[in-house]
Structures are given as C-alpha cells and as structure tokens.
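Table S2 (text version). Query chain:
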Amino acid sequence: MRRPTTLELMLLATIGLWSLNLTVSRYILTHGLQPLAYGSARYLLAAAVFCGITLVAERSLRIAPRDLGLVLAAGGVLYVNQIAFVYALHESTASVLALLLGATPIFAAIAGVLLGTETLPRRFWSGALLSFAGVALVALGAGDEVSGSLVGVLLGVLAAATWAAYSMLITPLMRRYSASRISTVVLSVTCVPLTVTALPQLTDQDWSLGWAVWLLVLFATLGPLVATNVMWFRSLDRIGPARATLAANLQPFVAALVAVVLLSESLGLLEVAGGVLIAAGIVAARRRAVPSAPGE
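Corresponding structure-token output:
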C-alpha cells in the first residue's frame, strides 16, 4: 500500500486542526471565556505571532498603497465574520455551525459573481438551491433546545457568507504577497475594531479560568489559526487550489463528527439530512475552485 506523501499529510493535518477548532472554541466559550473576549484575545495573539514570523522571514510588512483599500475591506469583513463566528458558537453548537460552514463554497461562488470574477453555469444554481435547502433543514433541526437557537443558525450562515467574501477579497493579495504578510496586516486591521467592541467584556471578564482553558486558547490560536495558514498555502502552491479546496470541503463534516464525539453533542435527523444536502449541492455545483482562506 502506498505511503502518504508529506504534502498529503500536511493537508490532512490542516483539515484535522480546522475540524478541532470548532470543538475547542465551543468548549472555551462554555467554560467561562466570553465570546468577544475570546475572539479579540485570540486575534491579538495571532497577529503578534504572524508579525514575528513575517519580520524574521521577509524583514518587511509593507503593503503597496494601491492595495490598502483591499486590505481595509478584508479586515472589515473579517471583523464581521469573527463576531458572527464566536456568537454562533455561543448561541448554537459546534456541530450545527460546522454543517452551516459547509455551504461556504456556494457563498464564495456567489461572491465571485457579484464581484464580476465568476461566470457560473446553470448547474451551479441547481447545486446552490440544493445547498440552501440543506441550510434550511439544519435551521429547522436546530430549533430545539439540544442543538441551539435560530439566532445561532442565522449567525452561522453570516459566518459562512462573510468567510467566503473574505476569501474572495484576499485572492488578489495572494498573487502579490506571502500568506504570512497578508495575515499579519489583515489580522492587525481586524484587531482594532474587534478589540474596541470587546472592551466591555474584556474589562468584565474573570480571567481565572484554569490552565486547561488557557492551554486550549493557545492551541486554538497557534494550531487552527497560525500553523494551518502556513500548511494550507503551501498545499495551494504545490497541488493547486482545485485539488486542495476539494479536500478542504470535507472539513465541515469532519468537524461536525468531532464535535458530536468529543462534546457529546446531538444531531437530529433533519440536521444530518441538511448536511447531506449541503454536500450534494457542492458536488452538483462543481466549478473552478477559488482558493479559500485559512480556517477561522
């Protein structure tokens, strides 16, 4: 039997870390850390780490003036994304959010149409309708006390849509800058409004949470946010976005399974059926893949 290559192992590690991210973040939010306090602390730490990596490797954080508008737009969209992400996890469950994030490729394609970078065939819209029907089933199934609230579902859809928009916005930047430089600059821009918004929670937060929670915060930052960034963009460079993104499409469904196993969350029949429809819609809407940004 053929042994997996280093690149294949790197791609699997990326998907694995992304899948763990939702479960770990949900655990953190249910063990004392408030949503905005968690989001802002995590992004501040990640921005600092990326800054150090970039300065050591490239000796510069310079972005050309023509790209500043795009950086600010990406930072603004990522700001909305992070608020939606942490509150979706707070209001719902990791497994439900994972299934909703499975629709991200559909949102990315629609964003491409709106930005004028994509022309999509008729079969795409059939697949999109199928995926959105799946989202509706997940929403219906998540209306009970076990799986979460409708607010959490709506925030999950917003997280998927804004992540797709963010991926589209940074695609032109990827042609001119390294992944670490883009991450440093965009995360730094995002940290400003995110920290300001989080100030009430930061001042009110009880920081005596125990070593286990802080160890998981460190993991959620250095693993799913920092390490995957490096591995994902190396995968894109080596095997191309089409094959890499095809593998990444598995991540939301693996993440849902991880959350069910590790957090003992429940998925009802409607939610499972919704996840299947979302996946079927992506397959039916097959198109030229757009590089995705690293996981949240």
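Notes on Table S2: The mean pLDDT is 81. The chain has one domain: 6-284.
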